[in-house]
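Could someone model 5-O-phosphono-beta-D-ribofuranosylamine with this protein?
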Amino acid sequence: MMKKRIAVVASGRGSNFQAVIDAIRNGTVPAECAALITDNPKAYALERAKKAGVPCRIIDYSQFPSREDYERALLSSMQEADVDLFVLAGYMRILGSSIVKAFPGKMINIHPALLPSFTGLHAQRQAVQYGVKLAGCTVHFVDESLDGGPIILQKCVPVLETDDEDALAERILAQEHVAFPEAIRLFCEDRLVIEGRKVRIQSIE
Ligand code: GRF
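Reply:
Sure, complex below.
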């Protein structure tokens, strides 16, 4: 099977990006990481990319006069990257619909909640405040809805009575680092079939 080319889009710390790099390196994900794209020149993800030899593309949001100009630059950078899959790993902006439309079925995101609960920002805080007993993470295809695209994988963790937002976030993050490379592996093995809202995972023949 041909190795897929993937690009990671991240705004910050990049621990999920690191999990993907590690999984590619140890051979569990049959892919080549062709680019790290970031909107934030201070993102720690950039250090990780340099260490791993992944080419970086910085599209600095603050350098553009408008959101439209920024999105146009981001879109052309994404097109130039010429990859089979974009993975959003802590990209902290909402992607404009022109970008989402440009890569149908070719973009996945990780969200630190069991969707459709707790979309948007501070999902772990929302879970603690709501008082749920189970929380987790979701890897899903990106469509034009907010955190609403077809779900590929979910992992759950307990919420303890002593948890604050940070403690829960840490427990969820450990599962993110498992779920994200696993979903990317399934994509790279051509095993994900989108059927309406559902994603069917094909077994290996
Ligand atoms: C993760 O919790 C991810 O689910 C969310 O943003 C956070 C990014 O963390 N979308 P990191 O940058 O991958 O460490």
